[in-house]
Amino acid sequence: MTYLIGIDVGTQSVRSCLFDLTGVVVASASRPLTTTFPRPTWAEQDPEEWWRGAVETVREVLQVSRVNPTEIAALSYDCTACTVVALTEDGRPLRPALLWMDERAFQEAEEVSATGHEILRYCGGKVSPQWMLAKGRWLERHEADVFRRARWIVDEADFFTFRLTGRMTASLDNATAKWNYARPLGGWPADFLRAAKAERLAEKWPADVLPVGRSLGRIKETVAREVGLSPATVVAQGGIDAHAGEIALGAVGAGDLALIMGSSTCHMAQSPIPVFANIWGPYPDALVEGMYTLEGGQTATGSIIQWLVEHFGAEAASQAKSRGQDVYAYLDGLAETVPPGSEGLLVLDYFQGNRTPYKDPLARGTVIGLTLKHGLPHLYRAVVEGICFGTRQILEDMAAHGFTLERIYAGGGGAKSRLWTQIQADILGRPIHLPRDKETMALGAAIWAGIGAGVFRSYEDAIGRMVHIERAVTPAPGRREVYDTLYRQYVDLYPAVRGTMHKLATRGS
After folding, report:
1. What is the pLDDT of residue 254?
2. pTM of this prediction?
3. Strand, helix or coil at 286?
4. What number of H helices and E strands is found in the chain?
5. Which CATH architecture has domain 1-298+403-476?
6. Strand locations in 182-315 (E)
């Protein structure tokens, strides 16, 4: 038999999965990751913890599955995007990585956006503080010694490319989506880099920019020995986790939308023509040759739920443990007993700024309507409702700019939540289609591996064999009216409190 490995390096964990060619998970293993928040809206992780997690989980799936390593044709990897790491020539991290959700470089982002260069049309007109140019320039400005010592300032995926193969390449997916690379303009235009004061930064980028699924050759022999793989195993170019999820949901047709519900939420679609909405993109050739990738995003979604549970859910966690339940499933059940609208609570999901449609790094999370009647189940449900309202706003903006939505597919950790998927269907008024296999991102990485090894001829071939949509969550009757009213209030809330948000954000920084 032939098998493939997908390594999914998310925000909260590293997960490795071994798949057969029908998309069945033969074995999987995960390790948690630690995120630190040195200051408000800053977020960092240790790259060596990523690598340890990957090594340990690949080794574990091989041991558990007892598959002959010679039967594993290839592996690939998906990673969080615009997680920027400064490395020495031999790939050692010089400091913790600036995690994707880190918003510290908002001033540098404004400066790059102020160039007004035509390449900005391909990223929604404005550079995010989360992206490479902003973060790289922040390092140059604020940590000059780290910047000087760094041979490489690259993305998390590039770190894995180097560790797995000894090659330093940039993923076309990441470069187009987060580094302001655009094939129609020749990649990175020299005049743009000059105007953005990013020429020194660009010298620290890889020369080779390769599409996802491109073979990088065989795995390094030292790594193969360490994890137990055959040295003949092919490594295929990896890319962005949400984009891997889009492939694993099969959402590459006209009108398809992949809703990747994780620590953040991404809204991914492919279009044969550019759609210039208040989103990120359109990204030419980033994921599918000849297509434009459209990407809406909410910076904090599942991470808000995690924050709520970690800080206020000790009693719920104890109750869940006594019942043999996962705390999130337990709280889902409690929140299902709360009526739609959470008895007067409304949440803005901007706990780490707003990614789209406002692109406002100084936006902040807001909870309005609290009374002494409300408890954790109310707040938990209100957070989920606020997240789903944010998704609706992004999809309505895409529609207003020419994207015709036909079908929604959902993956990621949030797609395992009965509460979240049901509320999302109710608020959008559309069915949410769910896959059979829940390891969405790792499956997408495994598909890239299969393409790189020549196991699959194309995405269509791989999707036809490995992707299986199991069921759809349909809107519950009688909820649309209350959610329509609350949605209008959600949309009105941000402009009403924006000024106060910005004053508080400036004071808190």
Report:
1. 87
2. 0.90
3. coil
4. 18, 22
5. 2-Layer Sandwich (3.30)
6. 209-210, 215-218, 234-236, 239-240, 256-261, 265-271, 280-284, 292-298
